[in-house]
Write a structure and sequence with these properties.
mainly beta; two-stranded antiparallel ribbon; 1 helix; globular
């Protein structure tokens, strides 16, 4: 996932999508996320459609 502010891409795991009631993300789709530090960098903790 690429932030609107131009910063580095953020990893979103399929299980995060499932917990949020989403099955897929479509390129260009706008979402609101809460992020946190994961093992390999910044990752999405929760996500919802904007």
């Amino acid at each position: 996932m690429a932030p609107d502010n131009g910063e580095k891409d953020v990893f979103v795991h399929a299980s995060t999508l499932a917990r949020s009631g989403l099955s897929v993300l479509v390129e260009g789709q706008k979402v609101v996320v809460e992020c946190g530090q994961g093992k390999k960098g910044l990752e999405v903790r929760s996500i919802r459609l904007a």
